[in-house]
Amino acid sequence: MAPDAAVDGLERMTGGASRETWSFDATWGGEVHPLVLRRDRPGGVLGASRGTERSVIAAAAAAGVPVPAVLSGSDDPAVLGAPFFVMARVAGEALPRRILRDDAYARARGVLAVQCGEALARIHTVDPEGVDGLGRYREPADLVAEMRSGLDALGEPHPVFELALNWLDDQLPAPSPPRLVHGDFRMGNLLVDADGLAAVLDWELAHAGDPAEDLGWMCVRSWRFGNDDAPAGGVGTRDDLLAAYTAAGGRAVDPDDLRFWEVYGNVRWGLITIVQASVHLGGAVRSVELAAIGRRTCEVENDLLDLLGAPPSAPAGAVAAAGTAVESGQDRPTLAEALDAVAGWLDDDAAPVLTGRAGYHRRVASRLLRILEREALLGPGFAAADRQAFAGLLPTPADPPPGDEAPEPVADLARAVAGGLRGRRIPPEAALPALREVVDRKLAIANPSWPRT
């Protein structure tokens, strides 16, 4: 990119919860060049430096992976306020719901699973020793230990994650020869046109690792965006993905190893949802998008329970019956009615005038208000049911508190259950049904339409 280029049409793009993405046109040498700027944002999820990311993209391109051309960049925040790089803007669509539903991408959907398998096989030909800044290879046992430490650092009790981490410790695959791993290969980070995969984006989480990690990550349910009958990114089966991967030269992956990495990927995504919300809650970045992501943690907990063999979900009516509306003594509209009114205004009046990134955040804000509306109606009753479920997994206290004392906080009971699971004092077969009930109630508030077993 020429230093005297004229810039026009600078526009913040949607998404980018951990980094900013800007679209613009630059003119130099008498030609207009469509470009994209990727810039760090304060408090985002840690990943590779921009310099390392540029090196990774160059290595991927040399291996035949479709990627945008990188033109320039710097890790010096003095240049543009934060580390950044500029790359060519490739034509295509990245929004998963359009790719998975619009008629314009019908042909692409038929070939994407194969193309993704081929792209991953090419990525995994890259020797990480030849890419600066990737860091050391960590064996599966190290990765699980790091996630457990990360959960401790977040300070929130999540018994389902404790159960899953124990399972991962018990199912560790043999260490694999390290290869370049994309680290976030999924729908949303793939640019698609009418013919299929146009470019692989967002390399900031690239690292040296086991190639099966990328395959398991793509199969995480959150990346299917409603196409739950197609576990590989909403576009194919696990077998489709693995067959294309091995046909393109990738090493054969044992189904048990793939399952390990799918469980690992779910725990990893669950921790990321908590981290993203904490960035907002801590004030580093005030963002309705980051705030809303915190309510997605229960989706991951549900999916982990499915993978770990928990009993099926309770009927929706039984879940709803555990919640009861609470009198507040205030005039109407009630809390739930007021939230409904504001969400309705966002959906009906604001929608036509808020487009682009503002329109995306309008939808996020509306969904968050609907969550709060359901919580106002169901939350108190659900808390009582959660308290009972957690207490049932713990030893009965010798001297139960008198009936007029305040009930023990649900978070304290959850923390005690999490500690019991980590210490393997609570058997999984006892915990799974109780945790299924708790997570069902979370989903009834956060996302009632989330697929359940």
Protein architecture, described:
It is a single chain. With 453 residues, this protein is an alpha+beta fold. The protein has two domains: 6-139 and 175-253, Transferase(Phosphotransferase) domain 1 (Transferase(Phosphotransferase), domain 1, Orthogonal Bundle); 277-397 and 405-446, no CATH class. It has 16 helices and nine strands. The chain has helices at 50-62, 77-80, 96-101, 106-123, 140-154, 159-170, 212-218, 238-247, 255-281, 288-293, 297-307, 316-321, 335-350, 356-391, 410-422, 428-446, and strands spanning 6-12, 19-28, 31-40, 70-74, 84-88, 179-181, 190-193, 196-200, 207-209. A five-stranded antiparallel beta sheet has the order 1-2-3-5-4. Strands 6-9 form a two-stranded antiparallel sheet. Helix 4 (106-123) crosses helix 8 and helix 9 packs antiparallel against helix 11 (297-307). The longest helix is centred in the C-terminal third of the chain and has 36 residues, at 356-391. The chain is globular, with a radius of gyration of 23 Å.
The neighbouring-strand order within the major sheet is: 1-2-3-5-4
CATH topology of the largest domain: Transferase(Phosphotransferase), domain 1
Question: Helix/strand/pairing class, anyone?
Answer: alpha+beta
Query: How many strands in all?
Result: 9
- The CATH architecture assignment of the largest domain turns out to be Orthogonal Bundle
Q: What's the CATH first level of the largest domain?
A: Mainly Alpha
